[in-house]
Amino acid sequence: MRPYELLFIARPDLDAEQVEAVINKFTALIEKEGGEIIKVDKWGKRKFAYEIDKKWRDGFYTLVHFNGEPAVANELQRVMKISDEIIRQLITRLGE
Length: 96
Fold this sequence. Notes:
Layout: E1 2-10, H1 16-32, E2 36-52, E3 56-68, H2 70-81, E4 86-93
Antiparallel strand pairs: 1-3, 1-4, 2-3
């Protein structure tokens, strides 16, 4: 299994319970696909350097460290791209 880092930004119009549900949804997906969650850091709501899609000025940032196979990262990225709750996401494989 390889170490990965996932950073995603949830929409700012979600309340605290909805943000927690989004985080749980994606951590559960990682575990369902055979990955292992190492650490979840909730950075909270932060302002963007520039406006995204002419409507988003801030969002809820979350950083997740996990171990998994490349298929886990691919499935996670696929699901995040079609999720309405996510503004941006980035999955990075960490160095050995």
